[in-house]
Structures are given as C-alpha cells and as structure tokens.
Write a structure and sequence with these properties.
Helix content: under 10%
Structural class: mainly beta
CATH topology of one domain: Immunoglobulin-like
Number of helices: 1
Oligomer: single chain
Length: 517
C-alpha cells in the first residue's frame, strides 16, 4: 500500500472512539460507563494487556462488553434477560471468551472470539432437576476447554468438563449425604494440576435455610481428592469467591446472610490443611462481594457498607494473611443520597480495578481504580468495620458420593437487542496524556470508506510506525509516518474491518476503519 501525501485542508471528521493507550495515562478515580440505569454488575475480567470485559444488566437486557484499557467501548453483545441471565465470563487458553449463564433454568454457554463474534451457543441440561446456581473456570494446564459447576434443589454439586468446542468430556455429581437439601458449586479456582471448588450446603440446623460452606479438591479428570465442610454456629454461610493468595494460600469469602452486620472470610494455608477465619462487622449492614490478592499474602476486599439506615457506600479494605485489617475506606461514586457499592475486582500491575454500581438511579455502572493503599477513591471517608475471630467453628469431612450424571447438550440462539452507552468521568484526575487528547490528535475519515482514507494528525507523530491489520490480526502493511496529512488507498482490499495501529514515543494508538464497497 502506497502513501499518498497531500496538503489538503483539515476537514471536520467523525473521530472513532475506540482508542488503546499504553503510555503514561492512568484511569480516573471513577468512570461511569453508562448514563442510563445500569444497576447490575456480574463480572470484570482482563483478557489482554489492553482489553477488559464486563457483564452488566440494565432494564430488560444484559450485556457482555469489551473495553480498551481506558474503558472506551470496543464492542458489546446484549441479550434479553428473559432469554439468558448472564452469570460469569472467562477467557480460555485459546484466547476466546466463554460467557456462562442460565436460560430456562439450564446452564447456557455462548463462546465469542476476541472481536465479539459468536462462535457457538450451547445449553446443558441436568436431567435430575433445574439449575439454581452456577460458576465457570478455564481448564487447568494447556487445556483450551473449561469447567462448569452448579447444583439444584433435588441434586447436589455437579461439575461438567468441556473441551474448547463445548463438548462434554465428563460430568460428575458430588453428593454430601449429611443433609438432603441442595448443594451448589459457587466458585472454582486452579490448585496445582486440579481444581478447588467452593459450595454451599443447606443444613437446616439453625434456621429453615441455614447454610454451611464446603471446599473440595478434584484432579483434572474429576476425581475427588478431599472434601471439607466448614460450620460456624448460628450463622448462614454462603460462599461467594475462592481466591488464591500470593503465597499459594487460599481464602474463601462468605456472606453470612441473616447477620447483616457481619461477613466472614476463611483463610487456608498453602497446604490447605490449616484453616482460620475472620468475621468483619459493623453496627449497620456490611456486605463483602469480591476480593483479590495483594503481593504480601493478604487481600484487598470490596463491597458495600451502610452509613445510615437507608444509604450504602462502596467499601474497600485491605487485610494481611491472617485477616487483620490494614486499612479501610468507603467512597461514593455518586451523590450521597444514592445507594452505591463496589463489585468485581481484578489486579492490574500495581493497581486494583473494580466495578462500581449505583442502584435504582440513572447514575449507572462504572469502573474505579486504586493503588495498594486505597489511594484513588473520590468522596473518600473512613469506614468503621471491625474484625473478630472468637467464635468456634468446626471442620468435618463427611462422606461424599461421587457419581456420573447425564447431561443433555443442545444448540440454542438469542436475539441481540441494541444498547447505548454514554461514558463519562464522574470524578478523579487523569494524569499523563488524557484520553480526550488522544482521540482529538488523530483524525481518520471518511469512516466507513469505499477505498480512499484520509489521515490528519494534530500532534507531531513523524517517525512513528503505522501498521494496518485485518480483522483477524494479520498485518498487511506497515510504514513510517512522515507527514501530518496523507491518504491511504484501501480499494484493493476486501470489504471489512481493518485495524490502524500507530506506535509512537508516548504510547500506542489503535483505531478501526470500515471498508464498504
């Protein structure tokens, strides 16, 4: 492809909003990803150095969205919640995205490539009853498949191992006969060459729906290696998330359900034999939702904390490897009269990124970022939670029956209603090169184009490398930039989406251009 340099007058153009930046810019304290009601957040994952995916619900629809590292929208797939209730999304070893949820009371999988194209959809029916809870994890090792977990009211914990194409390799049920009520797998993490699986166990010992937590370890073939049940007197313990800490130890975050002023975290050592716990309490409601390991064997945990009888704020606190609180903060990414909370959290280099949500308002779902000391919050204030570890708890190893379960796999499809996003920075300071200056610095027009595409740079990028690649990522042209205004001729290329990447001294910029003939 030959560069055609011109001295054309700078024209008004539509600037693409898809921008990657890998230089010195940092995320603001909070960025709102939608100006409309966007109350739910079901997931946050990093799928490459410069891309994230989220799951959110708004109104009658749920959306899987892919974002740049500055959380500008790349693509989104939306489904009606009456068809498909999204639960979790992961990236498998083949670099594709697997979205898991519930449709017609059955596990449902939609697999996407990194461009958002649907590769297949499948539904998994457990013949013993409807599915009440579910979770998903990538397969261990170099396996490109995934493992599904769930349960139902008449069955027990079950795990379904699938290959990259969604075909069932094995499916097993792990039934603790101590109690006849449901047991549901809620979280799966890798442990060596196998998996750790957390589940609830309905006990009926304290209230009609009292719950214990359980953890089991299975190998890659689904063979049970051990099973432990954790019982806290007079509490309902609903496992939320298993977390591998930096010292190869693990923690299990639990909701205590009826004790609204208290939440619970179990701490396993690296041998998975010694277990301790901490209860985190407040005079008002506290809810812990997600956590991530720091680099010192501890955790950073988030959730919501009541500041009065009707208003919650987002809660963040850091603990050491024994669960002792190192710092605690609360923040409100919206006006103080709204209920807010923090959700899924991931670690990115030295920072921690988490979802922020304001319920029942138009303020919407957003993204926040902090460092290991909690710096970065806006409307920051002190929290008032305390930790205790004085109540006794027991660990039992009940008899567990492992059986193969039949699973029926069928194809399915969904409609894709449109959804609109209006990102805006709510608060916080962006340092380095701002994302708006990046957007304004490069004009590419027209878009779509039938062949000739004009480039205009408002900043000096002479000497930068310009690469052009197709939708599959194959580079079809690269050259040095030597002018502020020039044109490229795409008329010899097929219709489709092409990536324009500019590698400059201050960062990397990527835009997409559509060729339509």
């Amino acid at each position: 492809m030959k560069l055609k340099f011109t001295k054309a007058k700078i024209l008004f153009s539509i600037v693409l909003t898809i921008v990657f930046f890998t230089g010195t810019a940092q995320l603001p304290g909070f960025k709102r990803l939608s100006a409309t009601g966007f109350a739910g957040n079901q997931g946050l994952r990093q799928i490459s150095t410069n891309k994230y995916i989220t799951i959110s619900n708004y109104g009658t629809a749920q959306s899987l969205s892919c974002w740049t590292n500055m959380f500008n929208l790349i693509w989104e797939k939306t489904f009606n919640v009456t068809q498909f209730a999204m639960m979790e999304a992961i990236q498998t070893k083949d670099k594709n995205i697997v979205l898991m949820g519930i449709a017609s009371n059955n596990l449902t999988i939609v697999k996407f490539d990194t461009l958002g194209n649907i590769l297949y959809t499948k539904r998994y029916t457990n013949v013993s009853g409807n599915i009440t809870m579910s979770t998903i994890a990538p397969a261990v090792g170099n396996d490109t498949g995934f493992i599904l977990g769930g349960g139902n009211c008449v069955g027990a914990n079950f795990l379904i191992k699938c290959d990259a194409n969604g075909n069932v390799l094995w499916s097993k049920q792990f039934n603790n006969f101590m109690f006849s009520a449901s047991k549901n797998a809620t979280s799966i993490v890798h442990s060596g060459t196998g998996y750790l699986v957390a589940s609830d166990v309905m006990t009926s010992t304290v209230t009609a729906i009292a719950t214990d937590a359980a953890v089991m370890r299975i190998d890659a073939a689904g063979n049970l290696q051990w099973y432990k049940q954790l019982s806290m007197p007079a509490d309902r313990e609903m496992p939320r998330q298993l977390i591998r800490r930096s010292n190869n130890a693990f923690s299990l975050l639990c909701s205590t359900g009826y004790n609204n002023g208290t939440e619970l975290v179990y701490f396993f050592d690296s041998t998975l034999t010694n277990v301790s716990y901490k209860k985190y309490s407040s005079s008002l409601n506290i809810n812990i939702f997600s956590g991530v390991a720091d680099n010192s064997g501890g955790l950073i945990i988030d959730g919501a904390h009541a500041v009065n009888a009707s208003i919650n704020k987002g809660l963040l606190f850091r603990v050491d490897g024994s669960g002792n609180i190192l710092w605690q903060k609360q923040s409100d990414p919206a006006p103080g009269t709204f209920n807010t909370g923090f959700g899924y959290m991931i670690k990115n280099n030295s920072n921690y990124i988490f979802t922020a949500v304001t319920a029942f308002t138009s303020t919407g779902f957003g993204i926040g970022v902090i460092d290991v000391n909690g710096n970065g919050l806006c409307q920051n204030s002190a929290s008032s939670i305390t930790s205790t570890s004085v109540n006794p708890f027991t660990i039992t190893t009940p008899s567990v029956m492992v059986t193969n379960i039949p699973v029926i796999v069928t194809a399915t499809s969904f409609t894709n209603p449109l959804a609109a996003f209006t990102p805006s920075v709510y608060c916080g300071i962006t340092t380095g090169v701002s994302e708006m200056s990046l957007i304004e610095s490069i004009n590419i027009y027209p878009n779509p184009s039938s062949g000739l595409v004009n480039f205009n740079f408002k900043s000096d990028l002479n000497g930068s490398l310009l690469k052009i690649s197709n939708a599959m990522g194959a580079i079809i042209s690269e050259q040095k930039i030597s002018a502020e205004d020039f044109a490229l001729d795409f008329s010899n290329y097929a219709s489709g989406i092409y990536n324009i990447t500019i590698l400059g001294t201050n960062g990397t910029y990527t835009k997409k251009i559509v060729i339509q003939k």
